[in-house]
């Protein structure tokens, strides 16, 4: 076939895609009207997951699973925006890994609000300035983000969904010669995670490592100061126009960060592969057996606990703790219901949502 023939075929398929997408949007609009009349929630991650699973099972290729999901996530975001434009607050600045995580869920067409702190993301959602908030909760190399854990306890927001992204670092500079670089800007954690690259490349050179608040800020500074460099995300380097010298300079390519999508008054239906997050403030948690007995309630019902973090209660000069727990399953599952019913006074449910890995 000639190029023109092939392009004609593509045009005719695009015509059909457009028609089908608009037909889909007409049904979405009706769903939106139904939801408004019953005052129910627009974003249904478990329904979106179900659609993705069904599409992946049907997909015979050559479209890859990740390409298929990226396309559908944009369709969902466009659909939700038609039902009701959604504003998403995220831990900024623009180009941060949290921004990337937010976009991976809410697509390119949602309205994003970069926030300077994790607390201000929580507050944006609390006050209704944003419908959703996205914050990091843990990195698989560095552990949890305590500020997020503490705010989950302090505020009354729900976890609507989680997202995970692979963290890759880029070395960006306007200089061609590494020996000319006087300062390298990045976040302290990024210096740690790229230590092998830094040792190998700057051994014997004079460059000073300067920690700044965010990797995006590092990119911005490297854009303004010629003999400097930034260790940042690829999108931040592009955003600030700093040439990328090396990509993927992190020590471990298994480096992943997990993010939470927060909302007010949110409830997912069970999807069949859910995770539940709880906060436990057990009475006399320092007494022998209190914590063990509580954990045993999960074990006895065959519920797999996937995480437990202890955080200081900050009550007087004591060393006492509350706990953040995660387990497999949904709060509607009878076994988990039993536990929640036993603990109405000392356990807070933060949400049940689709598990990503
Ligand atoms: C249309 C709906 O609303 C949203 C959009 C979806 C879609 O585009 O398929 C799916 C789930 C919801 O996040 C729905 O709930 O079915």
TrEMBL record:
<dbReference type="InterPro" id="IPR036979">
    <property type="entry name" value="CM_dom_sf"/>
</dbReference>
<dbReference type="Pfam" id="PF01842">
    <property type="entry name" value="ACT"/>
</dbReference>
<protein>
    <recommendedName>
        <fullName>Bifunctional chorismate mutase/prephenate dehydratase</fullName>
        <ecNumber>4.2.1.51</ecNumber>
        <ecNumber>5.4.99.5</ecNumber>
    </recommendedName>
</protein>
<dbReference type="GO" id="GO:0004664">
    <property type="term" value="F:prephenate dehydratase activity"/>
</dbReference>
<dbReference type="InterPro" id="IPR045865">
    <property type="entry name" value="ACT-like_dom_sf"/>
</dbReference>
<dbReference type="InterPro" id="IPR002701">
    <property type="entry name" value="CM_II_prokaryot"/>
</dbReference>
<keyword id="KW-0963">Cytoplasm</keyword>
<dbReference type="InterPro" id="IPR010957">
    <property type="entry name" value="G/b/e-P-prot_chorismate_mutase"/>
</dbReference>
<dbReference type="InterPro" id="IPR008242">
    <property type="entry name" value="Chor_mutase/pphenate_deHydtase"/>
</dbReference>
<dbReference type="Pfam" id="PF01817">
    <property type="entry name" value="CM_2"/>
</dbReference>
<dbReference type="GO" id="GO:0046417">
    <property type="term" value="P:chorismate metabolic process"/>
</dbReference>
<keyword id="KW-0057">Aromatic amino acid biosynthesis</keyword>
<feature type="site" description="Essential for prephenate dehydratase activity">
    <location>
        <position position="257"/>
    </location>
</feature>
<feature type="domain" description="ACT">
    <location>
        <begin position="279"/>
        <end position="357"/>
    </location>
</feature>
<keyword id="KW-0413">Isomerase</keyword>
<dbReference type="InterPro" id="IPR002912">
    <property type="entry name" value="ACT_dom"/>
</dbReference>
<dbReference type="GO" id="GO:0005737">
    <property type="term" value="C:cytoplasm"/>
</dbReference>
<comment type="function">
    <text>Catalyzes the Claisen rearrangement of chorismate to prephenate and the decarboxylation/dehydration of prephenate to phenylpyruvate.</text>
</comment>
<feature type="domain" description="Prephenate dehydratase">
    <location>
        <begin position="87"/>
        <end position="264"/>
    </location>
</feature>
<dbReference type="GO" id="GO:0009094">
    <property type="term" value="P:L-phenylalanine biosynthetic process"/>
</dbReference>
<keyword id="KW-0511">Multifunctional enzyme</keyword>
<dbReference type="Pfam" id="PF00800">
    <property type="entry name" value="PDT"/>
</dbReference>
<keyword id="KW-0028">Amino-acid biosynthesis</keyword>
<dbReference type="GO" id="GO:0004106">
    <property type="term" value="F:chorismate mutase activity"/>
</dbReference>
<comment type="pathway">
    <text>Metabolic intermediate biosynthesis; prephenate biosynthesis; prephenate from chorismate: step 1/1.</text>
</comment>
<keyword id="KW-0584">Phenylalanine biosynthesis</keyword>
<comment type="pathway">
    <text>Amino-acid biosynthesis; L-phenylalanine biosynthesis; phenylpyruvate from prephenate: step 1/1.</text>
</comment>
<dbReference type="InterPro" id="IPR018528">
    <property type="entry name" value="Preph_deHydtase_CS"/>
</dbReference>
<feature type="domain" description="Chorismate mutase">
    <location>
        <begin position="1"/>
        <end position="87"/>
    </location>
</feature>
<dbReference type="InterPro" id="IPR001086">
    <property type="entry name" value="Preph_deHydtase"/>
</dbReference>
<dbReference type="InterPro" id="IPR036263">
    <property type="entry name" value="Chorismate_II_sf"/>
</dbReference>
<keyword id="KW-0456">Lyase</keyword>
């Amino acid at each position: 076939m000639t190029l023109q023939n092939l392009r004609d075929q593509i045009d005719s398929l695009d015509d059909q895609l457009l028609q089908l997408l608009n037909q889909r949007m007409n049904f979405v609009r009706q769903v939106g009207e139904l939801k408004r009349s019953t005052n129910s929630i627009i974003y249904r991650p478990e329904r979106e997951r179900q659609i993705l699973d069904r599409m992946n099972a049907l997909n015979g290729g050559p479209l890859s699973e990740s390409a298929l999901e990226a396309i559908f996530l944009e369709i969902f975001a466009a659909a939700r925006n038609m039902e009701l434009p959604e504003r998403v607050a995220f831990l900024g600045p623009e180009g941060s890994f949290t921004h990337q995580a937010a976009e991976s869920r809410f697509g390119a067409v949602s309205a994003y609000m970069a926030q300077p702190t994790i607390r201000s993301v929580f507050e944006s959602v609390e006050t209704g300035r944003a419908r959703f908030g996205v914050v990091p909760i843990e990195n698989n190399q560095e552990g949890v983000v305590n500020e997020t854990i503490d705010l989950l306890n302090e505020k009354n927001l729900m976890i609507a969904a989680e997202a995970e992204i692979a963290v890759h670092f880029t070395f960006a500079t306007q200089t061609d010669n590494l020996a000319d670089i006087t300062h390298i800007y990045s976040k302290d954690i990024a210096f740690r995670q790229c230590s092998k690259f830094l040792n190998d490349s700057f051994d014997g050179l004079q460059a000073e490592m300067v920690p700044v608040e965010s990797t995006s800020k590092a990119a911005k500074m490297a854009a303004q100061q010629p003999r400097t460099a930034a260790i940042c995300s690829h999108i931040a380097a592009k955003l600030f126009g700093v040439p990328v010298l090396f990509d993927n300079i992190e020590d471990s390519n298994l480096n992943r960060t997990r993010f939470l999508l927060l909302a007010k008054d949110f409830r997912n239906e069970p999807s069949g592969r859910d995770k539940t997050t709880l906060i436990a403030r057990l009475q006399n948690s320092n007494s022998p057996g209190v914590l063990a007995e509580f954990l045993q309630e999960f074990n006895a019902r065959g519920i797999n606990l996937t995480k437990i973090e202890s955080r200081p209660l900050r009550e007087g000069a004591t060393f006492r703790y509350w706990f953040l727990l995660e387990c497999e399953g949904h709060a509607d599952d009878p076994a988990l219901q039993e536990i929640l019913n036993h603990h109405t006074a000392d356990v807070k449910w933060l949400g049940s949502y689709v598990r990503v890995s």
